[in-house]
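Please complete every field before forwarding. Incomplete forms are returned to the sender.

SECTION A: IDENTIFIERS
Entry label: holo-411
Bound molecule: flavin-adenine dinucleotide
Molecule representation: SMILES string

SECTION B: INPUTS
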Amino acid sequence: MENKYDILILGGGAAGFFSALNIAEYAPQKRIAILERGKDVLTKVKVSGGGRCNVTHAEFIPKELSKQYPRGEKELLGPFHSFMTGDTIAWFEKRGVALKIEEDGRMFPVTDSSQTIIDCFTSEAERLGVAVLKGQAVKDIQKQEDEWLLRTATESFTAKMLVMASGSNPKIWNLLSNLGHKIIPPVPSLFTFNINDSRIADLPGIATNATVQVVDKNGKSLLASEGPLLITHWGMSGPAILKLSAWGARILEPTDYHFDIIVNWLLDASEEETLEMLIDLKGVNPKQTLIKYPQFDLPKRLWQNLLMASGITAEDIWAEISKKKLQNIANTLTKSGFQVTGKSTFKEEFVTAGGVDLKEVNFKTFESKLHKNLYFAGEILNIDAITGGFNFQNAWTGGYMVAKAIAEKTL
Ligand SMILES: Cc1cc2nc3c(=O)[nH]c(=O)nc-3n(C[C@H](O)[C@H](O)[C@H](O)COP(=O)(O)OP(=O)(O)OC[C@H]3O[C@@H](n4cnc5c(N)ncnc54)[C@H](O)[C@@H]3O)c2cc1C
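SECTION C: PREDICTED COMPLEX
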C-alpha cells in the first residue's frame, strides 16, 4: 500500500515535531505526516533535563548563542537571526506553555515537567491535522523523478518534500551516505570524567569554581574551560567539565578517554600570586592551624584534602610552614594534575557530535545542496552544543527554518 503526502517528516522527535507543526501552520492545505519508528514519539523530550525538559537558554544575542555550539557555531549564526530564544519563548507562550528562567540561564516549563511540552506538541499536531504514524521504521529512501519514496517493513510512503529529523541514527546516516551525503563519524559529547584520586575520593557533592585544562603528554594545554566543577562518586562533572567534553569531543575519543587534566582551584590566580597570598596569610595568622580554616573561599573538606596532598598535617600552624611547603601548597591549589581514566554518561543531557556534513547544507533553508526538496533539522546534522538547553534550541531553529523554506516554496 502506498501513502501519498505532500511532506514527510522522518522522525518524531523535537526537530521533527517542530518542523511539522510550523509547516502545517504556514501551509495548512498540505498533507503532512511524521514517520516514527518507536511506539511513542518525543521520547528524548520526555527524559530530557532530568524529566523537566530544558527547552532553551536565556541568551538573547545571536552571536553569543552561536558560541555555545562546538559544531555549528558558524552555520547557526544566520538562522539565529531568524529564530532564536525569544522566538522559542513566544512560540510556546502562544500555545499556552509558559517558560521560566533559572539562575544559571536554563529555561524550563513552569510546570517543571517535560510532559507539558509533549502534550503541547501532540495536541497541536491533532489541531493542525498532522498525521503522526508510529511503529514506522524507515528502511529505505529513494529519490524518484519528482518525489521521495520511503519504505518501512510493511508500507511505502511518497511525498514531494522530505524532512530528515531522525537524530543521531547510524542507519539513517547510512541511507544518506548512499544518497551521496558525507557523514562526519559520530563520537559522544557531553560526558563526565572518571578520576580515581585520593584528593577527591571522599568529596562527592562538593562544588567550586575552577579552571580546568586538558594537557598533552608534555603538559601543553590543548583545551581549557572555567566554571563550576562538581566532584562526583566517579570523578568530576559540572559545567567546567561538560564544556571540555563538548569542545574536546573529537580529540578525546582517540585517547579512549585516558588523558591528563590540570585543575586551578583558584580559577585564574597564578602559582606565584598564590605563594604571595600564602606568605601574607602566614604573617597575619601565625598561630592558626592551617587545616581548620579554609582560605580562598574553598569548601572546607576540599581545602583540607589539598593541604594534606601538599604535605601539611592536621597540627601544622602557619608559623611553622617553610617556604618550600608554601610553594607546594601554591602548586597544588593552582596546578593539581589528575589522570582521567574513562568517561561516564551525564544523565541530564547527552548528545552525539557528528552527522551530515554542514558543507552540504544551505543554512538559509536547511535544504540539502545535493538533492532538491531534501531538508535536515536537529541532531542529524553535525551540530551539537554544550549543556543548558542549546541542543533543543538547535532543533527549534532548524525546524522553523525548514518550515519557512518549505512554505515559501509550496505557496
Ligand atoms: C537523556 C537526555 C537528556 C537531554 N536533555 C536535554 C535538555 O534538557 N535540553 C537540551 O537542549 N537537550 C537535551 N538533550 C539533547 C536533545 O534531546 C537532543 O539534542 C534532541 O532531542 C535532538 O532532537 P532530534 O529531533 O534531532 O532527535 P531525536 O530527539 O533523537 O528524535 C529523532 C527521532 O527519530 C526517530 N527515528 C530514528 N530513526 C528512525 C527511522 N529509521 N524511522 C523512523 N523514525 C526514526 C527516533 O526514534 C526519534 O524519535 C538530551 C538528550 C538526552 C539523551
